Amino acid sequence: MPKLTRRSLAAGLAPLAAAAQAARPNIVLILSDDHTKFFAGCYGNESIATPNLDRFAAAGMKFNNFFCAAPQCVPSRTAYLTGRSPVAARMGRFTSPLPPDVITLPELLRAQAGYFTGICRRQFHLDGAPGPNSKAVYEKYNLQTFDKRVDFLDRASPRAMTEKRVNEFFDKRPANRPYFLWVNFDDPHFPWDNIPNGINAQKLRVPGFLPDLPGVREDLRRYYDEVQRVDGEFQLTLDTIRKRAGLDNTIVLFAGDNGFPFPHGKGSLYDPGLNVPFLINWAGKVPPGSVCDDLISGEDYAPTMLAAAGLEPAPGMSGQSFLGKLTGGSFQARRHVFAQRLTHGSRPFGEGTTTHTFDLSRMARSRRYKLIYNCTPQQKYSPVDSYNEASWKEMSDENAWGRLESKFSRAYFPHARAVFELYDLEKDPHEMQNLAGAPELAAVERELKLALQEKMILDYDFLPLPLTP
Fold first, then answer.
1. Are residues 347 and 322 both part of a single domain?
2. Do 318 and 350 belong to one domain?
């Protein structure tokens, strides 16, 4: 019998280690930008053409109640990648770089499981945006860290470069290493293009929380067209990955980062700002045609992917793994999800500031009820990004002339917003009737305030708590 040595033992274990590594799933994260769930055929909108997303949804699991952690690009992406709330990760300012001590999903996958990791296409938003007044500070303190956090980094490329950038990632990926790839899209982010031969504005569906006005339909037309363009770019990305690496043992997620930039959408804590498409395929693991109606948070993505790779969540991660929901294992459903509205853009406070640049609010939501806590209720409301577009101008004019339906006037043109808003989502899915203070819902309101109180304390939130000491 040959003598057993450390060298021979290591040689014997090497194939086992390689096999274990090979068994770890590849992970692909594909994010559209400013994409509310309502705008996809697989979510019941028959006036939009998203055949590739619809087919993808049918082949895996569709999530109906996924809510991103913030209705804005930077803080929402923070939660996706860190498993923490944006407040806990100290990403409350829109142009902030991710603090170097906050560890991300790709870093953990690379350090603990040998993954090759990469980010490509549109600006991914987590390394700050140093303008001329900040550049020297960034350089002095080495604040841009993502060159060290991932193996392959494309900071920003145009849409025409999608296929090329994905191929470059696979050109550099070492053979037989599992990989994590994050692909970011521009669409349907504002400003919207006029795409030839697009959807007919008269035939599209106007959501019930918006007035059916010509300007609203015109802006929605351009938005619908960009979502349809997303559908093509998604399929191109998927086909490129399939050609280069196949899709066996690969978890592919398509999701939005936050909702669309219309009233009640981006920048707000109503469902259209937070409830985004969330579709997962994992051949052989996730049953085709499956649906998840449980509450899932943007904080939950990173812990779930770590669990799929056989790894533990990092200290500080507040998200909960939903791996069991994907694979039919054990799963503890959430009672509540939470979200945070933080600053948006980079305009100094006081320079014509309205809610599209500065607003502070928090949200707790159960399956049926939602509580919104407004900490800057005096801010004049205007929608993020689209505040100079035809839809908002026409709504403003109609309100000024007294012709806007009262429910829209109350929602979008109040003298001041209520500090607390409470909605019964079963009876009022468009969140137009504030029930805060209603005696019959006092127990519900207190339950949500207590849940939000706990979340804010555990996040070390800087805002006053909703309940007094």
1. no
2. no
Q: Given 301, 328, 355, which residue is the final one in a domain?
A: 328
Q: Angle CA(48)–CA(51)–CA(57) in degrees, nearest 5? A: 105
**pLDDT, tens digit (0-9, with 9 covering 90-100), for 199-229:** 999 999 999 999 999 999 999 999 999 999 9
How far is 277 from 187, CA to CA, in rounded Å?
A: 14
Write out the two tokens for 408.
């829209």
Chain centroid, CA 427 distance in Å: 26
Residue 6 lies in a domain: no
Please tell me whether residues 276 and 176 are part of one structural domain: yes
Burial environment of residue 5 by CB neighbours within 10 A (0 to 12, 13 to 18, 19 or more) = exposed
Q: Could you tell me where the DSSP H helices lie in 285-360? A: 301-308, 323-327
- Average pLDDT of the chain, as a whole number: 93
Q: Are residues 147 and 247 in the same domain?
A: yes
Q: CA–CA separation, 247 vs 241, rounded Å?
A: 7
Tally Cβ neighbours within 10 Å of residue 352.
7
Residue type, 18: A
Q: Indicate whether 174 pLDDT > 80.
A: yes
Distance CA 210, CA 85 (A): 29
What's the rounded Cα separation, in Å, for the pair 256 and 40?
A: 11
Instruction: Give one DSSP letter per residue of 105-118, joined into a string.
Output: HHHHHHHHH--EEE
Using pLDDT thresholds of 50, 70 and 90, give the confidence band for residue 131. Answer: confident
**Cα 150 to chain center, whole Å?**
20
Query: For 262, which DSSP code?
Result: S
Q: Which amino acid is at 218?
A: E
Same domain, 272 and 371: no
- Beta strands 296-297; 66-67: pairing state: parallel
Cα angle, residue 282 at apex, residues 259 and 69 outer, rounded to 5°: 25
* Number of folded domains that form the chain: 2
Classify 146 as helix, strand or coil.
helix
pLDDT digits (tens, 9 = 90+) for 10-31: 343 344 344 445 589 999 999 9
Report the distance separating Cα 207 and Cα 205, nearest Å: 6
> Within this chain, do residues 349 and 277 fall inside the same structural domain, yes or no?
no
Burial code (b: 16+ CB inside 10 Å, e: under 16) for 230-253 equals bbebbeebbebbeeebeeeebbbb
> Which letter does DSSP use for residue 92 in this model?
-
